[in-house]
Amino acid sequence: MTSVVIQGVSWWSSSQFNKKQLTESIDNAQNVFEQYTKEKEKILTTAARVLTADFGFKQAVTTNDKETIASVLLNHGQRIDADLMLLTDLKGQLISSSISKLDLNAAQSASLGILLLEPGTTHFMILQNTLYQLLALPVKAPRTVAYAIVGFEIDYDIADELKRLTGLDVSFFNSAGEVITTSMELTNETLTPDYLTSKMLPWLLGSRSAFDSRQFELETTKKHPVKLFLTAELSTIYQEHDRLLSSTIVIACLIMLIAILLSRIFAKNLTKPLLQLVEQSKAFSKGQYAHVVPNQNISQEVAVLFEAFTEMGNALDAREQKIIYQSQHDTLTGLYNRHTFRQIINKTLINEQRHVLITIDIRGFSNLNDILGVQVGDRCLQMLAQRLIGINGNDVQHARLDGDVFLSLIPLTEDVHIDRYVQEFISDLAKPLDVDSLTLNLKFWAGIAIYPQDGSDAAAVFRRAMIALDYAAKDNTPVRYYHSGEEEARQEHLTIIEALRLALTKADGQLYMNYQPKLNLKTGEIDKVEALIRWKHPELGFVSPEVFISYAEQTGIIFDLTSWVIDTVLEQLSNWQKNGLFIDAAINISAQDISHPDFQMNLNNAAVKHNISPEYITLEVTERDLMQDEVQAVALLLELKEKGYTISVDDYGIGQSSLAKLKQLPVDELKIDKSFIMQLASSESDQIIVSSTITLGHRLGLSVVAEGLENNGSLDILRTMGCDHIQGYFLSKPLSANSFVEWLGSYYKNNI
Ligand code: C2E
Ligand code: CA
Ligand code: CA
Predict the structure, then answer these.
(1) Is 493-751 a domain of CATH 3.20.20.450?
(2) Does domain 338-482 fall into CATH 2.60.40.1840?
(3) Strands (DSSP E) found in 250-378
(4) Cβ of residue 426 lying under 6 Å from some atom of ligand 1
(5) Quick one: which atom of ligand 1 is closest to the CA of 734?
(6) Cα of 651 to ligand 3 centre, how many Å?
(7) How much distance in Å is there from the Cα of 678 to the middle of ligand 3?
């Protein structure tokens, strides 16, 4: 484009320059022509003066001596090389002529007359198809008697000479547009003023003027104007021009060709490698970081770029690998994390191949962290991870879950004895560990699930191994295998807990209290009841208190449950008291209630709220619960006892606590466990135990209750043994509050 524009502009300016040159040369030509005619005019003036001053000629004119006039005109004319010598009268009528047969028509004569009006000035005039430059001077003798006219013919030679002088063609036309004289080599028919001004030459798709002409009228008699055309023939200029144009086009084409060639070379050396790099960066975005090798020879600069790309790819690759590694591994130990391990076992546990999944928890790890510091703890975890990796072969996978829990998935062949294998595994792991300068003897809990026997899919095996670990910690067993059905039980457990939580908040009658009467054998009165909780769930149905109480104890909601029981029972007592029934109630409390800081406050608040004096309330605590946190229990029970509450040791006899210990506890009552009472009549050994328990209890100043009395025979035995209270189905099953009042009425009716 650039070359085309440059070439075009230079072509255009050269043509402008040519045009200007042309105009100038025409101007010049015009000057030359004027100069030329002036020179001729001078010659004519001199010649005419000489002629008109000639005495003989003057005389011949005055005498009208035609022969002499004619000969003078002829001689004189030849001498000055004039083409025309005339003598006219004052009106312009021809008297004599150097041309013998000159025959003027009227118009020409009139023209001559006009010529006479301006003597001494040259005029152009056409006479008999010939153009003359004429000049008239008066012949004075002494007054003007005639006019002498002298002229030169403007013929081809003159035109040619003018052409030579000006470099332009010279053409003269008459008023009819007919050529009179011309330097051009054209036939008279062709050459017209029109032809000179509008002749076109075909050029490319259009045309262009053949000539550049300037026309002007010559100084002449107005009646017979003569037009002069100064004409430049353009074809030669055109030739030059066309040569320039064609070379311009050739040069432009050449430049374009070179440009195309150069851009091809560029494309090869730059664009193609760049495109390759573009492709490469697309590959990068898809995570493909192959080494970038150029497909062709490349320049040094591009090679640097390729190197940079390769470096970038490597860096990206490394970083991505690192990110992937970090997302899959535990940063501390380098073992797999939970997420990845789950994926791995999903992939591994798909066929029948036996695998054991061992979960390991370090016992007391948080203590170790607290005492020796987190750094030692971390080192310990790292070394343990190394030990795990070292213990087993290649296809064994290990992971660390959050904290101090490790997992190992181990494929087992049929001949491997699992118990033995696990024992070895744990004992290898438990070898003394040298952490920094310390030697640690770590102990573990291990939970074990076996594929496929403990679960048909990876997720189940994983869950069950975790359940086994949970039980290992709860039961404090070093190695705990998963037992079939445990997960389902746990599930039920969760369902029950959730439902119980809801039941406690709703107070919609799902939970209610039953009361089981106690008979005072000394007075024969029903002076006590034991409050026992009942739960009837709309979907789960009747749930045994033995089940949900133990779940509530495990999950910590027992405190809320006991609070609810206390409130409900005290409200009931207050209702009864308002109706004149003053009776003791025994409430069962758990170990967690004793250790709860708010328990005592809760109890007192409820007593105040329902206006029940503590002497009406017995608290039943099992022998086992009492022994769990002895010091705290003693402190609490002392305070409660001081307030007036009665403390009873429930399920006495199965907790294997010595009476000596019992002696130190602030209790009021012993409740012999029902397992000793139910078959009392038929079991001699039970009788020995119960009898001695009653005796010893009394010695310690305690009141003794026998629960689980089912028959009359046992009642008699207990009576003779001096037991204070009895409770059991023989007397009554636990009853609702209303039923109890009814039962009480009928009891007294029958026993009085
Ligand atoms: P427990 O405190 O030893 O309660 C006595 C249990 O023996 C009651 O069972 C009662 O129905 C049953 N029983 C009474 N007489 C006889 C009899 O003659 N023969 C037989 N075979 N059984 C008899 P229940 O009501 O099923 O309660 C079971 C356990 O649930 C209770 O044992 C107690 O530990 C716990 N429990 C019940 N209610 C509450 C409560 O409100 N709070 C707390 N913390 N525990 C409760
Ligand atoms: Ca009880
Ligand atoms: Ca009991």
Answers:
(1) yes
(2) no
(3) 355-362
(4) no
(5) 11
(6) 4
(7) 12
